[in-house]
């Protein structure tokens, strides 16, 4: 990563477009430049002030940070609070019960408007039902639901009782669900008959039945929401309908105050190999940073903004920026069940026009997909309500960033490229929209109160202009408190690579201003003839060509060069890319990469594909592409959002031409 020879990282760093905030935006922004100095002067004091300011505590805290048990932090540990009370009840008590909390848009066009007062009743009913099913403070609950209001009600009902939830992606297999249920020893599973995806009802309950038939399980009950009306198999005594238990329960429930360090949730992330890691977060510190970052990074004005984060609740972005951050801040938000192209490719933009969404938070993969579909689609809708755009999940290529700002943001909106992880719980590195002069493709600066840098192999901070590994150098409130049931693995995975530094697993580079550019996971770094190349770098070069909508690059074993660059590209329908022969595409794009980065970075092979394999959170599964590139049997594809994509790629490669 420290290599700056040809093929190094010069391409991204030569990105010299700059976008300062407008003076109008800067003047009205929630957070100003002085926040950095204030936080630097006394980091724990800064967070303590946020915790007092943004949350209501039933028992105020006096201790701020206890790092004596490092690497497990304790924040605000002698305080007590309830997460659901903070997300719901206090807004109603303050006279804001009529404010819309959720504008739910079903894929088929059904809608529900849920105010904070409604939310209080729904969450209370669900909490009473959970308690009646035997769930007590400290018990774990698995949630396997589509993105429907009941998913939010259930998460908050768990929080209300102090029962940590473990949300499992609706797209995950029965096997994945079973291992997560067993690992967390969940007593209850909350699911639905099914959900709507791509215009059809897709079943969920059968996967729960299959999971629970796999062996011994701690599950006592399965609570089932009726969403699609599909037939479901039923196990008497174990399965109960939401309509029979929750809808009939009392809508009054007293939230259980818990210690600040009481676990709020477990969320499994797929490690590169082996058993998934149950990342667990606690209550006080997590909520503090969720609320602060949501307000600071998106400049949220709760009275007037309409916020929309397109993430599924099955990943961390859905936890922090659909459920906890926005609701603790009393925001009005949109949640949408379906896919962006159902029933047509303008669905997202139609939703933005309909609800006058002012803040949009989505992933680079979605932006690149929209680029591929062509800008005439969003251009048909009125997107003038938008005032802040966010990106998360992967490095965003400069071209995609610029397209996002121009086509979706009307050349007007600040873009916040937010770097963080399931483990960090909340945003760590991001521009502040009223402060930072943004650079397309860079997450830029640690937020006020966050200390992160880039180090070399020996843990020394690299000078500006060099690359290395991203680390966090001081504890932060929403940091993971460990891996559920395996604290040794926690220390090994994150704290053993560099002494006393949190190792994020991402490669990064500092530019000449000291701004941080994320370069992808360190395992995505290739070594071609001794030159270190980042996948992100080459992908960005490819996407900067007008024919290319999306690109994924992998390093395939090569007899002569050690590794060789193999690129998979999706061509843009609207830019002439579709009309070229395969040979012409190869030659043109190889030369383009050579020109942008250097001949060393030229892909050995460029394969045109219709889709790329992605997880439901939008991350490209390069491991599977590497299998294709190295002519191996394709490995475990169970966490793909759409498992048929690998078949399509294989077919496309064997087809003539
Ligand atoms: C929130 C989330 C974490 C990994 C992380 C990094 C990548 C996320 C990014 C980004 C570059 C950004 N990542 N945001 N890379 N720029 N703005 O995605 O959590 O699913 O745990 O993934 O995602 O590689 O290490 P999670």
From TrEMBL:
Residues engaged in binding ATP: 393-395, 417-422, 506, 521, 532
Similarity comment: family membership: Belongs to the ATP-dependent AMP-binding enzyme family.
Transmembrane segments: none
Annotated CoA binding sites: 197-200, 317, 529
Gene label: acs
Reported function: Catalyzes the conversion of acetate into acetyl-CoA (AcCoA), an essential intermediate at the junction of anabolic and catabolic pathways. AcsA undergoes a two-step reaction. In the first half reaction, AcsA combines acetate with ATP to form acetyl-adenylate (AcAMP) intermediate. In the second half reaction, it can then transfer the acetyl group from AcAMP to the sulfhydryl group of CoA, forming the product AcCoA.
Reported cofactor(s): Mg(2+)
Highest taxon of source: Bacteria
Record's protein name: Acetyl-coenzyme A synthetase
UniProt domain Acetyl-coenzyme A synthetase N-terminal: residue ranges: 33-87
Post-translational modification: Acetylated. Deacetylation by the SIR2-homolog deacetylase activates the enzyme.
Binding site for Mg(2+): 543, 545, 548
CDD domains: ACS
Pfam entry (one): AMP-binding
Catalytic activity, EC: 6.2.1.1
AMP-dependent synthetase/ligase domain location: 94-484
Catalytic activity: acetate + ATP + CoA = acetyl-CoA + AMP + diphosphate
Stretches assigned to the AMP-binding enzyme C-terminal domain: 537-619
MF-aspect GO terms: acetate-CoA ligase activity
Record has Cell membrane as a keyword: no
């Amino acid at each position: 990563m420290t290599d700056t020879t040809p093929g190094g990282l010069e391409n991204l760093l030569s990105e010299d477009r700059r976008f300062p905030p407008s003076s109008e935006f800067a003047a009205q922004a929630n957070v100003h430049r002085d926040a950095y100095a204030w936080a630097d002067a006394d980091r724990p004091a800064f967070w303590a002030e946020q915790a007092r300011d943004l949350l209501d505590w039933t028992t105020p805290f006096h201790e701020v940070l206890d790092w004596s048990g490092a690497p497990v932090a304790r924040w605000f540990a002698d305080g007590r609070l309830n997460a659901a009370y903070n997300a719901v009840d206090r807004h109603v008590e303050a006279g804001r019960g009529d404010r819309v909390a959720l504008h739910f848009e079903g894929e088929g066009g059904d809608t529900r408007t849920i105010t904070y007062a409604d939310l209080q009743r729904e969450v209370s009913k669900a909490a009473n039902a959970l308690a009646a099913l035997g769930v007590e403070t400290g018990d774990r609950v698995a949630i396997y639901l589509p993105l429907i209001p009941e998913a939010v009600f259930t998460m908050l009902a768990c929080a209300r009782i102090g029962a940590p939830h473990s949300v499992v992606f609706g797209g995950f297999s029965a096997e994945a669900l079973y291992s997560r249920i067993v690992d967390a020893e969940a007593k209850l599973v909350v699911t639905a008959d099914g959900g709507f995806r791509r215009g059809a009802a897709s079943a969920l309950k059968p996967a729960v039945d299959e999971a629970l038939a796999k062996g011994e399980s701690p599950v006592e009950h399965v609570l089932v929401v009726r969403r699609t009306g599909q037939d479901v198999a039923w196990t008497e005594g174990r399965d109960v309908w939401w309509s029979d238990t929750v809808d009939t329960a009392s809508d009054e429930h007293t939230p259980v105050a818990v210690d600040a360090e009481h676990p709020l949730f477990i969320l499994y992330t797929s490690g590169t190999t082996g058993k998934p890691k149950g990342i667990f977060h606690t209550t006080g510190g997590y909520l503090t940073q969720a609320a602060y970052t949501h307000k600071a990074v998106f400049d949220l004005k709760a009275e007037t903004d309409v916020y929309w984060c397109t993430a599924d609740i099955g990943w961390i972005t859905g936890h922090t920026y659909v459920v906890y951050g926005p609701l603790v801040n009393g925001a009005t938000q949109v949640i949408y069940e379906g896919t962006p192209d159902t029933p047509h490719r303008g669905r997202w933009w139609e939703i933005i026009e309909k609800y006058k969404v002012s803040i949009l938070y989505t992933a680079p993969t979605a932006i690149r997909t929209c680029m591929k579909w062509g800008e005439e689609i969003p251009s048909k809708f009125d997107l003038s309500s938008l005032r802040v755009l966010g990106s998360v999940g992967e490095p965003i290529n400069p071209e995609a960033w610029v397209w996002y700002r121009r086509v979706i943001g009307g050349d007007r909106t600040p873009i916040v490229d937010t770097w963080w992880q399931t483990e960090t719980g909340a945003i760590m590195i991001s521009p502040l929209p009223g402060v930072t002069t943004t650079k397309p493709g860079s997450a830029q600066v640690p937020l006020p109160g966050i200390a992160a840098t880039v180090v070399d192999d020996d843990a020394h901070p690299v000078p500006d202009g060099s690359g290395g590994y991203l680390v966090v150098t001081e504890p932060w409130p929403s940091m993971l408190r460990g891996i559920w049931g395996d604290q040794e693995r926690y220390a090994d995975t994150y704290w053993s690579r560099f002494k006393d530094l949190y190792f994020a697993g991402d490669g990064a580079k500092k530019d000449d201003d000291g701004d941080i550019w994320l370069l992808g996971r360190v395992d995505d770094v290739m070594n071609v003839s001794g030159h270190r190349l980042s996948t992100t770098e080459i992908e960005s070069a490819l996407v900067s060509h007008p024919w290319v909508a999306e690109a994924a690059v992998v390093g395939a074993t090569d007899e002569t060069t050690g590794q060789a660059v193999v690129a998979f590209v999706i061509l843009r329908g609207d830019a002439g890319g579709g009309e070229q022969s395969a040979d012409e595409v190869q030659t043109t794009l190889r030369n383009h990469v050579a020109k942008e980065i250097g001949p060393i970075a030229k892909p050995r092979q460029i394969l045109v594909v219709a889709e790329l394999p992605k997880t439901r959170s939008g991350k490209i599964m390069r491991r599977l592409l590497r299998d294709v590139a190295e002519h191996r049997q394709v490995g475990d594809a169970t966490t793909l959002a759409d498992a048929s994509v690998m078949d399509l790629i294989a077919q496309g490669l064997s087809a003539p031409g």
